[in-house]
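Dissemination and training. As part of the outreach component of the grant, students in the summer workshop were shown how a complex can be specified as a set of sequence lines and then modelled as a single object. The example used during the hands-on session is reproduced here so that future cohorts can follow it. Participants entered these lines:
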Amino acid sequence: MKALILVGGFGTRLRPLTLTLPKPLVEFGNKPMILHQIQALAAAGVTDIVLAVNYRPEVMTEKLKKYEKEYNVRIEFSVETEPLGTAGPLKLAEKILGKDDAPFFVLNSDVICDYPFAELAAFHKQHGDEGTIVVTKVEEPSKYGVVVHKPGHASRIDRFVEKPIEFVGNRINAGLYILNPSVLERIELRPTSIEQETFPSMVRDNQLHSFDLEGYWMDVGQPKDFLAGTCLYLSDLSKKGSKLLVPTSEPYVYGGNVMIDSTAKIGKNCRIGPNVTIGKGVVIGDGVRLQRCVLLESSKVRDHAWIKSTIVGWNSTVGRWARLENVTVLGDDVTIGDEIYVNGGSILPHKTIKENVDSPRVIM
Amino acid sequence: MSLDVPLRQKPGPSSTKAIILVGGPSRGTRFRPLSLDVPKPLFEVAGHPIVEHCFRAIAKLPEIREVFIIGYYDESVFRDFIKDASHTFPGIAVKYLREYQALGTAGGLYHFRDAIMKGRPDRIFVLNADVCCSFPLGQMLRLFEEKNAEAVILGTRVPEDVATNFGCIVTDSHTKRVLHYVEKPESRISNLINCGVYLFDTECIFPAIRTAIKRRTDRPRLVSYPSSENLETSFFADEEDGEKNEVIRLEQDILSDLADSRQFFVLETKDFWRQIKTAGSAVPANALYLTKAFQSQSEELAKPSATILPPVYIHPSATVDPTAKLGPNVSIGPRVNIGPGVRIKEAIVLEDAEIKHDACVLYSIIGWGSKVGAWARVEGTPTPVTTHSTTVVRNGVKVQSITILGKECGVADEVRVQNCICLPYKELKKDVSNEIIM
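and obtained this result:
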């Protein structure tokens, strides 16, 4: 089987992290975001993966070569010379996606969930029409495009309602699809939107179905959602009794949902959790309090620091008695001085912070 | 320099007494919330009550055998302090003189003139208890003798933009004579200001006060030096305060006259000087007195180490975990309990307070018996040493730069309190900043 991952541009919404690494390589739950998707696709029997990108950093090529071997898949870059929207990249990759009659997956690289690729393929095969989009239930559908089914039909889509004022349903497009190669005939090679153009044309021909996603779903394209998504992901692992989490019997674990790389070092008298990921080679001092935060590879948190709702970038250092909160994001190699308070600071790489950041702002 | 034969040599050695002006409870409102639980003069900075710092400076002069504390607090307020002081300095007689109504700084002196003049002292020191400085009384005495003065005032230079908040002194830089004195002028006159510490010839000061009282009776309600611009405000000032005509203040009513007619000199101190007005100003005062104690290698201070950044004062009955890091400029009161991994800097922690593990206290005062939870952060904002203010502007609003927890307040685990004043007996369970918590 085949799949196309829509990666797109520079990931500016996830800066300052994406000033250092391309978005697909930023670790989510101690694993590059794209690897979550590659593993799930490979497990569902996918052998050909196309990455739709509009730039191709060297670091990405190398990393993906490694994954090709590890997961026995072929990974191709499809580079747009101009942005082609969400449907154009499918046409651009027609050679691969249309090489046989088997359907292909399409996924948005920012979406994390418990990818249901095998079930999705089975469902798609069963109804026999051209396409299936995964939908997820949300509390506030008025912020999204809502899927409305044909009367009396559980899955066939009747129409999409963009940001509905009145309640018409609460299922929204989750950014994961499975499509027959024939769909490629509906797409022209130009900037075009799969949501605005391709899907409505399929709906008109009664060719589009929805598939309900079980469990969590999040678009983690920006820091606030990256943290929220981390909580959902860790809670899901916890529910499944995953070995990836530190057992709650560890004295420093507080409230569960804690993932710590085996090479990380934890000091004495810490209180960690809930919802914390600690990456490779991270060093945590004594008496440190961590909750709802992501510590990326080789970062250091010194004694008695307090961190909440924060992403600590690679190689960064958080000083003793420092306090970080309210969606603070430290880029690569940032230093936060001892006793410093940062409230919602976005700190660009290689900066040293010696004065409090009392209210949310960007430190260039 | 050689001295000429003094003009007014009296027989026998001159005798000197000292007076500490402490004010009264209705005057200490700006020291809230701390003055809700302790009279301001007894509030401890650098391990000693504010008034004791004055007292210790006086005790260094061997010729002073008698000290009066004048104020309108209840007698019982200073009873213990006086008992302790008499014990520590057996050579000095200490007496509290209570004004039953606020008479003003000069009015109080005059009211108690018989007690003060008993034994016919030649000179009296007058110290306002609400200033924090090194009290160079010895230098003032030398200048007094050298100049054959009738009055000496302690002065200090402050930045031009704040000078008009104080009494301004115009001086002849060569002779050090005071040429002109204006209390809180409307325009810039001088950046040499009144420190609130004086030395008077008793034959000069009491007649000067008497003259001022007489003038007041002749021309009721007219305060000091009205210009056409401030005539109205000085007129209203009396009415608003509800003060009677007998209120005579040294600053407004006496010093200007002395500058006009008397041998009045200024000793300009290059040393530290701060007013202790608001509760927040106790933090810089604490820092200055601790620094002074450190420079004079006081035995009272905690020994510097990896976790003690000097100067730090720790009361012998306090418990401090060895992993806590304290200083600089920290005072820890009696029976205080400081947990492991705590950080305290530029702060005063009062009696029976508890700081739990990994908490951080910066630029703050932690009230008596208050509790700061684990990983909590209680924080003020540092203000530059040169400013004589304890407020900062946040989002266009003036807020206290020093965070103060009143008596028996609680800060829950992990909570952050910034630039707040918290009245006694409040529990803070959520993050707060830039607020007064009633």
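Residues 299-433 of chain B form a domain with the UDP N-Acetylglucosamine Acyltransferase; domain 1 fold (CATH 2.160.10.10). Students were then asked to discuss how this feature might be tested experimentally.
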